[in-house]
Design a protein that fits this description.
heterotrimer, A alpha/beta (about 350), B mainly beta (about 130), C alpha/beta (about 375), B: mainly beta, 2 domains, three-stranded antiparallel beta sheet, C: about 375 residues, alpha/beta, Peroxisomal Thiolase, Chain A, domain 1, two-stranded antiparallel ribbon, 13 helices
């Protein structure tokens, strides 16, 4: 048996409201709020990046697992905003945790699916018996070009999952994946902002792959929507995951616990992983959870988890996800936001 | 070259590793080769707690060049639980609301970027607890 | 140990000396000191300089300056103790003469600070703190002293106005010093309304960035009459002490232990404590530093330094005149030169040459020079010869 033995999320404290961005560009804020169900998004402080958020989320995961970090045998960070083009994020993370030197480490990139891919590989290594513990992290400080639709959603956060074979909090019952070559969103080498193919990112991209992976895993598991207490999908906005849930037969109630994007924004590689942490914060023993990620390019990974009796005992050992999202927020004006995100630079 | 100088301090910067004197129990951060209290030479590696309180602080408005984009920022002398003191920025707060005695905890943050193409330097900063 | 006398001093006006190099300002003052003493040869030279490497990209100052002065092949040493480098030069020269190693020693301090911009100057000065555990986190020198000010305010109830009174007094004194960089008078309101540097310290709480040098001639007291026509001023006490480099490691964040220890040693050598001192120059790199220094020197009780300036206690006509030269605040602070200039001011005070800022009947005087945030301090006590 393999499963999650520790989990954690980190969400920066800064926020910007959709209205503040819309005001700057003369855009129609109500339409974004209605159409995409986005109210505000998290913004990383200037001293935060994929590495720093991964460290905090992973420390929470280690704390909930109660293990010695030195026994972690693999560390994978999935992100499309690794601070270095060449030099791993994972080495800093492993060093900060005290997991060096015997830990397999590499950075993953698959747009917003890099985090779940890291989780899958971490889980697989544990299941194969190659390592005792493995860590998979999804984290991003995603960028949207000024005035682009992505600017209203591109946000920051990290979700971290430790996998092991003992003292499991959420058993992995099934996995599946669905992947094709689909150029819906990309960022070329040396480009600062990603580009996307507009409405092509919807039906042939997000929906096709998310539904493909979800249907695949449900079939493998012989399950239907009613067998689950919760479902969490990749959430580039508030609307897509609700719609995809509905298409799969999930109620709003099953989806809303892990649906953070209306006030968090799209944390890219962190999106469905952080949603999963919010579910694990409240899930009860026996609850089944469906998670389906999506990454442009394009593909989806799917997991079915079942919460164990141990989960409630560790939920309070580290900061929970919803309070991080809802409390202790600082709102930015667009100028400060632009400075924080390196869109404008001080002279000299 | 900044790499070696930075790399050497990683255990302290990333994990807050300190040296506890086997003779008198005094904790040195960063670790030392000789205990300043009892002159002992044997130490045990310990990790400092991540919680503490502000003893004094300031808000920097005129920075050294590497910090020019960050002003204004708060920086404090923080006494960690157990008594070891550090100098650390206090972030994720309105600096005008800080007080002496306020509880803080450390978080992992980026401290410096060496130019546009150099290494990124990480370590601890404090946030209100 | 031989008794040591100061028989010549040399200083030019400090400021932003755009047209002059480090060598120029050094040689000018060195020649002035030699002319004042009436000597045409030296046996050795000591120069205090904090960071010519970071400020002008030049190290090896002993050779550079001996060459520039045309004094090679005399032995020439550069000594460094951050902002106390000048005080250390005086002490090193004192020891060289006292020991009998040399008879006529040229002691100087120099710093050329304006060849780098403000941010780089702030960085260079910051190297006097713990580079890896203070500066790495973004602290600056105004920041370190601002933390002392905040801690002192919290402990003793120091007000913003009382702090500003130190700057007001020192600019008042500096207005009577023709060599001061900023001889203008300032008001409490101006200080409190000036630009914030490191809360609660504002620009008028801070000493400036300055180019400058200062030089003096030391010789054995028993040869002073033969060597120079000037009436000698004796160095009767010299104390030097160190403390932890990181401010956060000091047990008491409102007390400068290195100053107290250096003073204790100087008082002992001089054979008299703070009550014997008629005039004082302290290292007021920031307004709070003067308050902390006079407490550590034992001139006022702990916590009483707070009102020393506002009550007039430390004015030129007060009971304990502090910084009659205008201090670092008004006179300027070319870091390596400051400790030498403090001793020059007191030499002139003891010679009775200070005009409008003369402390009446000064017989014995004390100079306190600080390194960094208090990681080192040097105290000298002078007496009419």
């Amino acid at each position: 048996m393999v499963g999650v033995i520790g989990y954690g999320a980190y969400i920066p404290r800064y926020r910007i409201r959709v209205e503040e961005i819309a005001k700057t560009w003369g855009a129609d804020a109500p339409s974004y709020k209605r159409g995409l169900l986005l109210k505000e998004k998290s913004v990383p402080a200037p001293d935060q990046d994929t590495i720093t958020m991964s460290v905090e989320a992973s420390r929470y995961a280690v704390r909930r697992a109660g293990i010695d970090s030195a026994r972690i045998g693999a560390v994978y960070v999935g992100s499309e905003s690794h601070p270095y083009a060449v030099k791993p994020s994972g080495t800093v993370l492993a060093e900060a945790l005290g997991a060096t030197p015997q830990a397999h480490t590499a950075d993953f990139e698959f747009a917003c699916k890099a985090g779940s891919e890291g989780m899958f590989v971490a889980m697989g290594l544990v299941q194969a018996g190659l390592v005792e513990y493995a860590l998979g992290v999804g984290a991003d400080t995603s960028q949207g070009a000024p005035g682009d639709a992505l600017e209203y959603s591109a946000s920051a956060g990290a979700g971290a999952f430790l996998f092991g074979r003992e003292k499991i909090l959420a058993e992995v019952e099934e996995t599946d994946t669905f992947m094709t070559d689909t150029p819906d969103f990309w960022r070329r080498e040396h480009q600062f902002y990603p580009e996307h193919a507009g409405r092509f990112t919807g039906e042939p991209a997000y929906f096709k792959h998310t539904l493909g992976a979800a249907k695949g895993i449900l079939k493998k598991a012989g399950a239907t929507a009613k067998d689950f207490a919760f479902a969490v999908f990749h959430q580039p906005n508030g609307k897509f995951p609700l719609k995809v849930g509905e298409m799969l037969g999930f109620t709003k109630q099953q989806v809303e616990t892990g649906l953070l994007s209306p006030t968090l924004g799209n944390t890219y590689s962190g999106a469905s992983p952080i949603g999963l942490t919010a579910i694990l914060d409240v899930a009860k023993p026996g609850d089944r959870i469906l998670m389906v990620s999506y990454g442009s390019g394009a593909g989806s990974d799917a997991f079915i988890f079942r919460a164990t009796d141990l989960l409630p005992k560790v939920q309070n050992l580290a900061p929970k996800t919803r309070p991080q999202l809802d409390d202790n927020k600082f709102y930015l004006d667009y100028g400060t936001y632009a400075k924080f995100r390196g869109k404008i630079r001080k002279a000299g | 070259m900044f790499s070696s100088r930075y790399w050497r301090e990683i255990p302290q910067r990333y994990r807050m590793e300190a040296a506890k004197c086997s003779g008198c129990g005094h904790v040195s951060f960063p670790p030392r080769l000789i205990c300043p209290k009892c002159k002992g030479r044997k130490f045990e590696k310990v990790r400092l707690p991540d919680q503490g309180k502000i003893l004094t602080y300031t808000v920097i408005h005129v920075p050294a060049t590497p910090f020019k984009d960050e002003v204004p920022f708060a920086i404090a002398v923080v006494e960690l639980d157990g008594g070891v003191r550090i100098t650390s920025q206090v972030v994720d707060c309105d600096p005008s609301t800080l007080t002496i005695g306020q509880r803080v905890r450390t978080e992992f943050r980026k401290l410096q970027e060496i130019g546009d193409a150099g290494i990124l330097c990480y370590g601890y900063k404090c946030v209100p607890a | 140990m031989r008794e040591v006398a100061i028989v010549g001093v040399g200083m030019t006006r400090w400021g932003e000396l755009w047209e002059k190099s480090l060598r120029d300002i050094y040689v000018e003052t060195a020649l002035l000191a030699m002319e004042d003493a009436g000597v045409d040869r030296i046996d050795s030279m000591i120069v205090g300089c904090m960071s010519s490497g970071l400020f002008v990209g030049q190290e090896h100052l002993g050779s550079v300056l001996a060459d520039s002065l045309g004094a090679a092949p005399v032995p020439a040493s550069r000594v460094e103790s951050a902002c106390a480098s000048g005080g250390l030069a005086v002490r090193t020269g004192f020891m060289e003469v006292a020991s009998g190693m040399s008879d006529i020693v040229l002691v100087s301090g120099v710093e050329k600070m304006t060849d780098v911009d403000g941010g780089d100057a702030t960085y260079a000065l910051g190297t006097a703190a713990d580079q890896e555990y203070e500066c790495y986190h973004g602290i600056t020198f105004p920041g370190l002293y601002a933390m002392m000010a905040r801690a002192y305010m919290h402990q003793y109830g120091l007000t913003r106005e009382e702090l500003a009174a130190v700057a007001v007094k020192n600019h008042e004194n500096g207005s009577k010093n023709p060599l001061a960089q900023f001889p203008m008078k300032v008001t409490i309101e101006q200080v409190i309304g000036s630009v914030m540097v490191a809360d609660p310290l504002r620009i008028l709480d801070c000493s400036p960035i300055t180019d400058g040098a200062a030089a003096m001639i030391l010789c054995p007291l028993d040869q002073a009459k033969k060597i120079s026509k000037n009436s000698p001023v004796k160095i009767i006490g010299s104390g030097h002490a160190t403390d932890s480099i990181a401010y956060h490691s000091r047990e008491d964040l409102t007390y400068l232990e290195a100053v107290a220890k250096a003073a204790e040693r100087a008082y002992k050598m001089a054979g008299g404590g703070p009550e014997t001192i008629d005039a004082v120059e302290v290292h007021d790199c920031f307004t709070i530093a003067e308050i902390l220094a006079i407490e550590a020197l034992g001139l006022v009780e702990r916590g009483k330094g707070r009102t020393a300036a506002s009550s007039g206690l430390t004015a030129i006509g007060g009971k304990i005149p502090v910084n009659p030269s205008g201090g670092l605040k008004s006179k300027g602070h070319p870091v390596g030169a400051t400790g030498v200039a403090q001793v020059i001011e007191l030499t002139k005070q003891l010679r009775g040459e200070c005009g409008d800022r003369q402390v009446k009947n000064a017989r014995r005087a004390l100079a306190q020079n600080m390194g960094g945030s208090g990681g080192s301090s040097i105290v000298h006590i002078l007496e009419v010869g």
